[in-house]
Every structure is written in C-alpha cells, then in structure tokens.
Amino acid sequence: MSQYAQDGQSYEVLLKGEFWLRDKNAIVSRITLHSESCEAIHFREVVFEPTRSGNEKDPILLRARQNVLDPDAGWTLFSHLKQESVRAHPEATVRPWATMNAVGDALSFACALGYVRRSEIYKRGFAFRRGMLVIQMTQQEMIEAKTGQPIPASAETLWEVEVKTAFPIQNTPETPISRAIDAVLEVQMLMKGLLDLRRNE
C-alpha cells in the first residue's frame, strides 16, 4: 500500500504552545534568530457551525478570517476536518484543511451555505516565516459589547503560539507530510527549554 494519499486531500501540520508575558522577550529573540521574516498581525475571525448539525458531537466548523491591518483585505474561508489519530501521527497534529479566498460579503455567503454564526474573536501579535512554516504568536482580544470593536489584551493574557504549515499540503512524493512534520519538530527542538510545543489533543 502506498504511504501517500490518493484522494487529493490537503493537510495542515501543527504544534501549539502558550506562555506568559515574562517569557516573551526570550521567546521572541529565539524565534527571530531562526526565522526569515517577521510581521505584525491583527485579524478578526468569525466561527460558523452548520445550521443542521443533527446529532453530530463535533460538527465541522467554518471559519472566516480577515486581516484588520489592511482596510482593503478580503476574507479567507477555511475549515478543518477531524485530525488524524495519535497512532498515525504521534509527534504533531495532522488534519485535513480546506481554504479559499472570498470576495464580497463572506459572512452572508457562509450563512447562505447553511451555516450560522457561533462566535467571533480578534487576535493580535506577530507572524514569523520559516521555510514552509508560519509561526504565529498572538493574544486573544475581548470584544466591546456596544461597539463590537476589540479591546487590547491585558498583560495577564496568555500568549498563544502555533507552529504550522503556511499553506495546505498534499501528501505526495514531492510534498510528503513527513517533511512538514520534521519541520515543526525542528522548531520544537529549537524552542526546548523556553517554550513547550506540543500536539493538539
């Protein structure tokens, strides 16, 4: 049996971690040292769930994300299916990933597809590029009830880190998932002693 997927499915490979403000400077310094670029990020993400989820325990969620820093930015729609089992990939999270860019009113488009809005969040932080990976370091912001605008995170808010493939990959001889797993595990080793990066359970 071939070790490569034959269905054309695209995947994301991911490791996650979190830390407090006191560790930020050391962590940023080490990530910067081993990255090719860094940019500020601030995005809005609206999460949708199917209108008719039936008895599904874990309905497939649709997410709409927009770059707040670019007033002309459109929306990106994306969704993850259930991640592969820990037996198949014990070192890192591997999950099917579908994504597309949307023009116009993406939120109404999602509703027209049969989804209903579930939640909305803002995240602000930094994105580092390292080869095929993006390392996102963000804090979640609360939303002001009256205006719907984000409220800057407090010093006590945890920083969340995601080390993941920057784009969907297919498990082919040219782009094997094992290569992406090796890439995120390399970052895990680089951050050892400062940041605990782990599989998303």
Mean pLDDT: 91
Reading side by side through the largest sheet, how are the strands ordered?
Answer: 1-5-4-3-2-6-7-9
CATH superfamily: Hypothetical Protein Pfu-838710-001
Helix content bin: 10-25%
Give the number of DSSP strands.
10
Principal-axis shape: globular
Low-confidence parts lasting 5 or more residues at pLDDT below 50?
A: 1-6
CATH fold-level assignment: Hypothetical Protein Pfu-838710-001
- The CATH class: Mainly Beta
Strand content: 35-45%
Total count of domains: 1
Determine the structural class based on helices, strands and strand pairing.
alpha+beta
The number of helical elements comes to 3
Q: What string gives the helices and strands in order?
A: EHEEEEHEEEEEH
Largest sheet: 8 strands, antiparallel, barrel
